[in-house]
Design a protein that fits this description.
Elements lengths: L18 E2 L9 E5 L5 H8 L7 E8 L2 E9 L14 E2 L4 H14 L17 H4 L4 H5 L20 H10 L16 H14 L3 H13 L31 H5 L6 H7 L12 H5 L8 E2 L1 H8 L5 H6 L4 H8 L3 E3 L9 E3 L25 E4 L5 E5 L4 E7 L10 H13 L4 E3 L2 E3 L4
Antiparallel strand pairs: 1-2, 2-4, 3-4, 3-11, 5-6, 7-8, 9-10, 10-11, 12-13
């Protein structure tokens, strides 16, 4: 067994203090621990393996401890089992790590939400046009994609991407439209961190968050850990799949979805299976870890002492819980979207068969990763939840596997229903 992600935090119990997963449903490939009252989540996790799951980890923190800590399946079909400490790339869940760095710097007074970006990054055209950090975090800056054709390997070269971003005029007046920035989000914020601290975002996160918390989460995976990373398996489309709007819109040459998916410098879904694809820092999209580490990171917002020690004041927490930007038609995703500063809020797109969703609580904040991974914290429900897997599902946001785990988590936490697109606490 590797030494990764051992429970070094006093408020997270060791495994022997938890309860082994019951095997009444006879699933030998699911392992882990659940606390009394949370047993139903083990069944949901196991059921996902009949819905296309290959290998995965799932964790829930509540009441100052891990109440669910599950892993199971295989690294590859018919191959070695998913290890207790196994890791995978979780794509845009990386934005959770990135947002925490930015909010820490704001709380420390090193950055300001509403100052023009040109004060930190004078060469950035979007900053010269009035773009602010708040807009960059809320996906309203106007730089969701780059129009200039990117050279091969562009995403693995931060300086190259910085140069392209500086030259790109915003696609709309900054602050006037919501359009998810899937990749550029990370390079923009990463450069702001570098200019502010003198360190890359990945290094800053490692020194200020991962190491103090004892968590193996990475933006820019150390080469020595690459053998521990489970390979990502792309989703294989089926005839019965509904046509996703993002896929349809991407067929229009020059559109935002088209540029996002096809002007990528040769980047592919499985590029993260190569050392170069995970060693480089892509703060929006190539973070790596497992559910236990990601849930533990988010759980700092459930512990006021730990939250304050990490530099997050009450204003930071309120900012993360508050919707900062919302639209019925996201310029990139083509469906409704809602964001706090740097993170996603609940997105209920069940009425739209061509769209994906992420239904969480009204005060919850978090993010999803392409293919279905997610992490979120809900202080009202008292839970931090994360799910990381290596078999991508259909779509960009959460699919049925992930939403089933989210729904089960809320029910176990005492929530009873979804109303107005969000999980709501019981009426007292």
């Amino acid at each position: 067994m590797s030494s990764l992600n051992k429970p070094r935090e006093p408020w997270v119990p060791r495994h022997e203090r938890c309860h082994p997963v019951q095997k009444a449903y006879d699933v030998s490939f699911v392992h882990g621990y659940v606390a009394p009252g949370w047993e139903s989540l083990a069944q949901v996790f196991a059921d996902n393996f009949s819905k296309g799951e290959l290998g995965a980890s799932f964790c829930v923190v509540a009441g100052g401890q891990r109440v669910v800590d599950l892993w199971g399946g295989h690294v590859v079909t018919g191959g070695e089992p998913w290890d207790e400490d196994g890791m995978a790339v979780f794509y845009s869940c990386s934005k959770i790590l990135t947002a925490m760095v930015i909010h820490r710097l704001v709380a420390d007074g090193q950055m300001t939400y509403d100052a023009p970006l040109s004060k930190i990054w004078p060469e950035l055209k979007a900053g010269q046009a009035g773009g602010t950090l708040r807009m960059a975090l809320a996906h309203t800056l106007g730089l969701p994609v780059l129009q200039q054709r990117l050279r091969t390997g562009a995403y693995e070269d931060h300086d190259y991407m910085v140069g392209r971003l500086e030259q790109q005029s915003p696609l709309w007046e900054p602050g006037t439209r919501v359009g998810y920035h899937p990749i550029t989000f990370g390079f923009i914020l990463g450069e702001l961190v570098r200019r502010t601290t003198g360190h890359t975002l990945g290094r800053y996160f490692n020194e200020q968050f991962a190491q103090p918390l004892g968590l193996d989460l990475y933006v820019g995976l150390p080469e020595s850990l690459f053998p521990l990373l489970a390979p990502i398996h792309p989703y294989q489309p089926r005839r019965e799949d509904p046509v996703r709007r993002i896929a349809k819109d991407s067929q229009t040459i020059g559109s935002i979805p088209n540029l996002w998916l096809y002007n990528s410098g040769g980047w592919r879904t499985e590029s993260v299976n190569e050392l170069a694809g995970v060693k480089a820092e892509m703060p929006a999209s190539n973070g790596a870890g497992n559910a236990r580490a990601l849930a533990s990171l988010l759980a700092v917002f459930l512990d006021d002492r730990k939250r304050l020690q990490l530099g997050f004041n009450d204003e930071t927490t309120a900012t993360l819980e508050t919707v900062s930007a919302a639209t019925h038609r996201d310029a990139t995703l083509g469906c409704s979207s809602r964001f706090s500063l740097g993170l996603m809020k609940s997105m209920d797109n069940r009425h739209d068969p061509g769209a994906d969703g992420f239904i969480i609580g009204r005060r919850a904040f978090g993010h999803v990763g392409m293919g279905g991974s997610f992490g979120f914290c809900d202080r009202e429900a008292g839970i931090a939840v994360a799910y990381v897997m290596n078999q991508l599902g259909n779509g960009i946001l959460v699919n049925e596997r992930g939403q089933a785990l989210i729904d089960a988590s809320y029910r176990a936490a005492g929530f009873e229903r979804i109303g107005a697109g969000e999980w709501l606490p019981p009426i007292r």
